[in-house]
């Protein structure tokens, strides 16, 4: 049984007994947001990440979701991508295509992946331009407090070092305030060349979900969520900088990932 969602200053915490249970809760959450967004705006603009997240979304290809989700209204983006060919094992696009997109009736022209024939810098610029065009036509909504796109949902994973998308600790990319999409060529995790949504874009979304599993990430989860004293002790932990301005933040955790969380202990006292 899942622990009931716990509401903290750092968003809602949903801690699950098993990956099976987490995965069911995650796909229910995505399906609910899709339905609400299609009802409200006629479309659902969702940004994916790579890594373990995609496997946890696999149930979307099965009953009931395969029939109940309005796939034709989905517009797919990537919060980060590795600058490799689309058929490369490191490609986040390939991961999502093989594990999800090829198994559901998505409209191919609604899948917005990066141009893999360009340099990292050019690919980031072009991806930003593509998003700008879709904001103009309101396929992607716009924030009412900044000029940023307001995705209906941005799905993030988190690395053991606390990175989200391709925003790494202590990296100058965390300071980027102007661009919507930027690039790095020195990722501490291979491959080195990546494009990534910037923090202003992530924090302008209507909904952000961070999906984290495994004991190896427990310390990073603690630092990202718990009240660890002055926030400026951790100025460059990317997962702590995920703070949607007006949107909703939900953490999907399994018990090992949540094992060092003080916020949970406090909520049960
Ligand atoms: O490199 C990346 O890593 C993170 C975390 O991946 P995980 O396998 O530890 O869940 C992922 O969210 C990001 O999209 C990816 O490019």
Automatic annotation (TrEMBL):
Domain Glucosamine/galactosamine-6-phosphate isomerase per the UniProt entry, residue ranges: 19-251
InterPro entries linked to this entry: 6-phosphogluconolactonase_DevB, 6PGL, Glc/Gal-6P_isomerase, NagB/RpiA_transferase-like
Molecular functions per Gene Ontology: 6-phosphogluconolactonase activity
Pathway: Carbohydrate degradation; pentose phosphate pathway; D-ribulose 5-phosphate from D-glucose 6-phosphate (oxidative stage): step 2/3
UniProt entry tagged with the keyword Hydrolase: yes
Gene Ontology CC annotations of this record: cytoplasm
Domain of life: Eukaryota
Record-listed E.C. numbers: 3.1.1.31
One GO term of the biological process aspect: carbohydrate metabolic process
Protein species of origin: Acer negundo (Box elder)
Protein name as catalogued: Probable 6-phosphogluconolactonase
Record has Hydrolase as a keyword: yes
Record key words, sorted: Hydrolase
Pfam families: Glucosamine_iso
Family recorded in the similarity comment: Belongs to the glucosamine/galactosamine-6-phosphate isomerase family. 6-phosphogluconolactonase subfamily.
Catalytic activity: 6-phospho-D-glucono-1,5-lactone + H2O = 6-phospho-D-gluconate + H(+)
């Amino acid at each position: 049984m899942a622990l009931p969602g716990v509401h903290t200053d750092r968003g809602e915490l949903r801690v699950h007994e098993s990956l099976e249970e987490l995965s069911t809760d995650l796909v229910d959450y995505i399906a609910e947001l899709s339905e609400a967004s299609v009802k409200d705006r006629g479309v659902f603009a969702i940004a994916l990440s790579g890594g373990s997240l995609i496997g946890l979304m696999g149930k979307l290809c099965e009953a009931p979701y395969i029939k109940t989700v309005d796939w034709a209204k989905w517009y797919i983006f990537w919060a980060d991508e590795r600058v490799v060919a689309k058929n490369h094992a490191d490609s986040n696009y390939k991961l999502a295509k093989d594990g999800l997109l090829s198994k559901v009736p998505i409209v191919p022209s609604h899948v917005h992946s990066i141009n893999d024939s360009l340099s990292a810098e050019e690919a980031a610029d072009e991806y930003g331009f593509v998003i700008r065009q879709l904001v103009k036509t309101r396929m992607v909504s716009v924030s009412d407090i900044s000029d940023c796109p307001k995705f209906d949902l941005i799905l993030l994973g988190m690395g053991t070092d606390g990175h989200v998308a391709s925003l790494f600790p202590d990296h100058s990319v965390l300071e980027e305030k102007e661009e919507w999409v930027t690039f790095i060529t020195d990722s501490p995790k291979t491959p080195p060349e990546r494009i990534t949504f910037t923090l202003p874009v992530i924090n302008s979304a209507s909904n952000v979900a961070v999906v984290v599993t495994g004991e190896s990430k427990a310390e990073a989860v603690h630092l990202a969520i718990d009240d660890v004293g002055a926030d400026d002790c951790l100025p460059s932990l990317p997962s702590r900088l995920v703070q949607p301005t007006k949107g909703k933040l939900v953490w999907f955790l399994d018990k090992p990932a949540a094992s060092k969380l003080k916020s949970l202990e406090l909520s049960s006292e």
